[in-house]
Structures are given as structure tokens and as C-alpha cells.
Amino acid sequence: MEINRNTIIKDLIESHPETLAVFKKYNLVIAGGVRGPNEPIAFFAKAHEVNYDILVQELNEAIAKGGGETVEIPTLEEDKIYEKFVKTAIILTLTVGVTFGAVILSYIAVKLNFNSIYYALIQAHGHAQIFGWVGLCIMGFALYIIPRVKNTELRHRNLANICYGFIITGLFLRIVLQPTPFRSIRFLVLISAILEIISICLFAFIILRTIFASKEKPGIFDKFFMAGISWFLISTFINFGMIVYLYKHVTYEIPKVVFSPFVHLYLFGFVFMFIFAINIRTVFAFLDIKPVREKAVNLTFWVLNISVPIYFITHLFAHRSIIALRLSQGIAFPIAFALITFIYGLRIFERSTKELQDVVMDRSYAKTIRTAYLWLIVTMVILLIIPFLGYDSDMQRRFHGSLNHAVTVGFITMMIIGYASKMIPTFKGIDMYSLKLSNLTFILINTGCFLRVFSQILVGINGKPLFYAIMGTSGWFEVAALGIFGYNLWKTMNTTQEVKSPVAVKLTEVTKDTKVFDIVDQYPETLQIFLDFGFSQMANPVMRKTMGRVASVEMATKMHNVDIEKFLHTLNDKISSKK
Ligand code: HEM
Which of 216, 238, 254 is where one domain is finished? Predict the structure, then answer.
């Protein structure tokens, strides 16, 4: 099999099992399910920082040495450790998360009053979203990705199930019981916080043991993971403190002056550190851009990790002390500086290096990752405006709510959607279930987020019913977006990749009646020929699997006005050169 930059790793392993040893040497079959990565070699080499030419040379040497049929092929296993975390996160956000949020928002819009809602319900929604939707997604991905970027095995894998069981029980008890006035069972809210602490400590233990067990040279992203773990632990203990307060004072609402800064400590500390760590390690390959500017991302690391605790403490006391108030207003600037420095360091809006421009692969996730950073810029701008608004005024509260939404939906949720759409198919060695649904999700979530963030600001500026009405509808766009995304991802996660069955009829010659899918499926190297003859849709794996199964060479050449004789001749030349 002739290897080219678009050769799919699992196809090469299939036809030349002896190449598996080379891929293992370069740590390139650590994802991808039972058949190996469904990724073009050139992309995977860049993503894993392996020199493409040396890799191909070694692969060709292994093939030349042959002996594939005698080589013992260790079965590749599919690691599904992330699945239950991600599936539970989807269920949570589609029930008590975005859907409940959209109901609350519509109610506020009808009442033209943000204080018309029992705040404990909003806090239950908030907890379900930050610990449930976001927390579970990050835990699931981290348990899968960190051992792979650290080139080691996950330690204490069995504890991950306990970690999962405890966190979802804790979440369930908290979300159901915080807003409900059943005094006799209020102690269960305390239990919920203790279960979450145990779960998050177990998670931290597993991840830290895995990182420390790695023999890999520490990368710049390592300290972001460490800081993220620390903020996750700190958050869960602060959460416990807030629950003890609720229990002791027999109340249902955590004071807003504590809950709101706590939410930002969790987001700017734990969540940002994990997202930044994964971005530093992967965005250069995903977006085909230069590697990060280390000085800039290092600066972000220190400025953000110093600013976050100051932000939290000064906001806690801003209503009591003018010094704390001024500091809480001033700290917005270093945080904004840290975010813009990271965007500069990550090169997220810079031109592509074009190193992978010849590589055929789905890149639909790229716009989602870039748009997430646009929303981070919106978050930053609102963060810089808030200190200039009257402290605790209605307008400031509305801007605060908009900032929350820009960061939780615009940046974080968008990032989860972008990465899940890229990573989960990669984990499984298959394609995303539907690119159409991915694009629809992108349009709907951005529409909903835009309407919410800017109509809530306008409500804060002049409170017109029209802006309330727009705001009240915005949540339903986001519910639709996450519903479609959840369905698309669930279908992808449920797709099992069966070991490729030997083809019924091995193609020896392509005729005008041959289906285009069979040609590329049996001879992946012919894909380049299709592209050279202008069949650009063949670049899309889903199109190949759908249209390609029905379209014969005759139909395709007619549709694209291609000289069938010349095309058949070129294809058969390629195939016969294989024999
Ligand atoms: C996507 C659809 C969503 C809708 C319709 C929605 C709706 C709401 C509403 C109406 C409020 C109360 C008003 C306000 O404070 O602005 C709220 C607050 C909150 N939401 Fe959401 N939300 C959504 C997504 C999210 C996400 C993805 C997260 C977190 C990852 C989140 C976390 C929170 C938190 C923590 C609060 C309380 C903020 C505070 O009191 O300081 N929400 N949400």
C-alpha cells in the first residue's frame, strides 16, 4: 500500500499489520477504538509532534520487511472511560440545565422582572450546569486524554467508577433538595456536598498519580492541569462551606455575594485551566497553526492564578469595605489582560501554517473553537465595563448575568461542543454521526447566546418589554442546539466500530458500474485520484459513506463532466500497481 499524507492509519494497519509496531513506537495508536485511529497520517503525526518523513520511512521499512501475516496483532481496545461522564452531563444539561434555564428565562421575561424567580432554583440550575454539565465533561475527557498526552496508563482506573457514582449522587441530591423545603431531610444536602468532595478528591488523586507516573518531559500544559486540579479541590470545599451555611441558617439560598464570586472562581480557576491546558496541547494541530508562544501563555498562567483568589475574596467583602470594593473593581483588569495574552499566545486567530492544507479531513470543529474565543473576548469586554456601573445596581446585575452567559455558553459550552465533536470520533476511530447536525448546533447556539447576552444588556440599560421578549426566547435556541448536539454525540458514542470484515468481492478492476465507495474503501490511496479529478465531496467521509455507496463511476463522471475513460484508466493503473 503506497503511503501518502492522506493515508488513514486504521486502513494502513488493516492492510499491513506489521505497521502497528511502528505506530505503537510513536504512541500513535492510543486512541481510535479496535481498528485504530481514523485519522490521516500527516495530521496525526503533527498532533503527536512526530516527524512525518521519518515516520513514513519507518513504516515503509516495516512493510518492505513484510511478515505481516506472521506478526501477532495485539488487539486494540476501545477505552470508553469518558462515556458515562459525558452522557450523564448531556442528560443533566438537557433537563435541569439549559431546559430549566430556558423556562426560568421565559418566566422572567413574562414577569418583566429578574427578581420574580425564587433564587434557590437559579442556584440549583447553576450548580447542575457548572458541576454537572461542565464538571462531568471535563472529568470524563481528562480521564481519557491526560494519560495519553502523558504517554502513560491511567492509574487507579477502578476508582473512576466510584468517583462517577459519588458525583452524580451528590449532584442529584443537591439539585433536588436545595430549593425544596423538606426540613426533615435537609441533612441530605450536607451529604450531597460530602459526596461531591469525595468524588473530586478521588478524581484529583487519579489524575495526579497518572501525571506523576509519566516519564514524559513535563510540557507547558502540565502546570495548567495542576492548577486546574487545585482550583477544583478548592471549589468543592468552598461549596461544602456554602452548604453548611445553608444548613446552619435553615435557609435555601446561598447569599448572592458569596455564590456569584464562587461561580467565577470555579470558572476562571478550574475550568479555564483545563481548557487552556488542552488547547495548548492540541490547537496548533487542530487549526494547523504554529505552536503556542510559551512566554505569553506562561504569563497568563501566573496572572490568572494570582488574580482569581483576589477576585473571589474582594468580591466577598465588596459590600462591606470600600477598599475591597475598589480592589474587586480593579482586579478585572489583570484578569482581562491574562485572557487577551492567552489569545495572543495561542495564536487562535492567526493564519494557518498550511502544513496540513493537502490533508483531507473534517475540520468543521475549527470554527466552533475559534468562535468560543470570540465569546471569550466578549466576556472580557463586559468584565471591563462592570466596574464602571453602579455597584450592585440593576444594570450591573444584568451585565453580570450577560457575562455569565457569554462565558458559560459562548466560551465554555462552545469549547465542549467543538472538542467533543473532534475528540469523541477520534477516541472511537470513526466519523461524527452527522456534520449537518453539527453545523445546525453551531448556528443555533450562537444565535441563542447572541440574543441572550445582548438583550440582557439592553434590559439592563432600559428594560423595554421588547428586550425582555427577545431574551425570553433566546434560551430555546440554546435548548434546541444542545438537544441536537446531545443526539449527534450520543449516536456517535453508540456507534461501535466492528472489526472490518473482509470485503465480499475484492475489486480487481474498476468499471463504469463500480460504486465509488467500494473503490476508496478497498484502495484508500485512490482517494487522491478522485480529488485530482475534482470530486471534492469525496473529501467528506460522511459523503463517501452515503452518496458513495449509491453513486457508480458512470453516474459520478456524468455529474462532474469528467472523461470516464481517462478516469477509469488512471484508477485501474493505480490498482494494478498494487498487485
Ligand atoms: C444555555 C442555556 C441557559 C439558560 C437559558 C440559562 C438561564 C439562566 C437564568 C435565567 C439564570 C438567572 C438569571 C441570571 O443570573 O442571569 C441563570 C443563572 C445561572 N446560570 Fe444559566 N442558563 C443557561 C446555561 C448555563 C450554563 C451552560 C451554565 C454553566 C456552565 C449556567 C450557569 C448559571 C449560573 C452559575 C447561574 C447563577 C449565576 C449567579 O447567580 O451568579 N447557565 N441561567
Answer: 254
